[in-house]
Amino acid sequence: MGDLLENIIQSKVKRKLLKLFLFNKNKKYHTRELSRIIEEPISAVQREIKKLLQLQIIIKYPEGNIINYFLNTQNPFYEDLKKVVIKTSTEPREFFKLLISSKSLNIIALYGESVKAPMKFSEPLKLLIVGSMESEILNEYLKAIMDIFNREYELLYYSNEQYKKEAENNKKFQTILKSKQLLYLKNDFKS
Prior knowledge:
The protein is 46% helix and 21% strand. It is α+β, with helices and mostly antiparallel strands. A hairpin with a 2-residue loop joins strand 2 and strand 3.
């Protein structure tokens, strides 16, 4: 399927600018700073800035002899544009960073079709998680992430003890653990 955003917006510079502005909506940038941050020539940045200004996606804000630009959150398409850019620029696994840093979770892994990039939108995200976090809290967090992406998920969640038992006794579980389609995002399991 490739990068959906790349197919919608052909200009690499415009895609980079949109991502930067949408993920940093309260920041203002001048042209040279934009060029440095997105690592693109200043002439290309100036050309795309002009187009984004015409579409009223960004606003020009002169300060002394410097012209800064910032995101126009009053644009009627702001929310829709933000959703498209977020959904096409990131995959759910990038949102698992908070889970990964959690001390109460020892293993976080994707398995099955979830490991392939890009992920298939039609398939539920398959997660294997081992730890001591309350399952209600974990499910609330996962639901919030999946709502952003309008995705379903299948969760195998085990305590450390349950995980050991399943790994020793459950053939289906052993198949998942031995599969080439298993991607650990975190593996701090201590036997």
